[in-house]
Design a protein that fits this description.
Bound molecules: (1S,2S)-2-nonylcyclopropanecarboxylic acid, fe (iii) ion
Strand content: under 5%
Radius of gyration: 17 Å
Distance between the termini: 33 Å
Structural class: mainly alpha
Shape: globular
Oligomer: single chain
Length: 231
């Protein structure tokens, strides 16, 4: 605790080093929220019976994006959107391919489980070390991300038996991308006082809980959630 207090006192939100790292992390979050918005609209088309809910989620993602754009402006940082698009390109491509094939389960795993757990982990770790303006925004956002994760859990739990094999395949294709993305962002995250180990730990907790809520056994969860973590 005392360590955290000292660490926060040391953060200079106006330093060039902080702002340079923020230009990439802020862009990742803005791009992520934009893609999440688009993904929920596509999911609404794939799941007409949940259309209203999914459109509602897509609107939340749009508000999140606006909030994080304001966080960048507040620190006078220009987000590096090109970097962020490349950062998401692997998951983006896999989501598009699955959507084109009508693979709802894969789309839900990518957006509503993996990306939401990644967001929840990142926002939880960011909140204690954020500037005051960004902290208030992020606290509001993370509450809503839990509801997005919940949508995915409820749907996949209700369709667990017939979704299980596709979930296993989609996990194997997409989880290694998350570890790669975390490694890519670790240095910049460190500048923002967010440690990679804490991000990995929080992600594993969120993702493991989600898999458990859907119906996977502890044994399955161990195997699934660590897939691709070790080289
Ligand atoms: O559902 C959502 O709102 C998720 C799209 C947003 C993703 C945010 C991605 C956060 C990763 C940041 C990594 C910082 C260390
Ligand atoms: Fe969001
Ligand atoms: Fe979300
Ligand atoms: Fe350090």
């Amino acid at each position: 605790m005392q360590q955290l207090v000292e660490q926060i006192e040391k953060i200079d939100f106006q330093s060039e080093k902080y702002k340079d790292a923020y230009s990439r992390i802020n862009a990742i979050v803005i791009e992520g929220e934009q893609e999440a918005h688009d993904n929920y609209i596509q999911l609404a088309e794939l799941l007409p019976e949940s259309k209203e809910d999914l459109i509602r989620l897509s609107k939340m993602e749009n508000r999140h994006k606006k909030g994080f754009e304001a966080c960048g402006r507040n620190l006078q940082v220009t987000p590096d959107m090109q970097f962020a698009q490349e950062f998401f390109s692997g998951l983006h491509q896999n989501f598009q391919t699955a959507a084109a094939e009508g693979k709802v389960v894969t789309c839900l795993l990518i957006q509503a489980l993996i990306i939401e757990c990644f967001a929840i982990a990142a926002y939880n770790i960011y909140i204690p070390v954020a500037d005051d303006f960004a902290r208030k925004i992020t606290e509001g956002v993370v509450k809503e991300e839990y509801s997005h994760l919940n949508f995915g859990e409820v749907w996949l739990k209700a369709h667990f038996t017939e979704s299980k094999a596709e979930l296993e395949t989609a996990n194997r294709q997409n989880l290694p991308l998350v570890w790669k993305m975390l490694n890519q962002v670790a240095d910049d995250a460190h500048v923002l006082a967010m440690e990679k180990e804490a991000l990995v730990e929080d992600f594993m907790i969120q993702y493991g809980e989600a898999l458990s809520n859907i119906g996977f056994t502890t044994r399955d969860i161990m195997r699934l959630s660590a897939y691709g973590l070790m080289p």
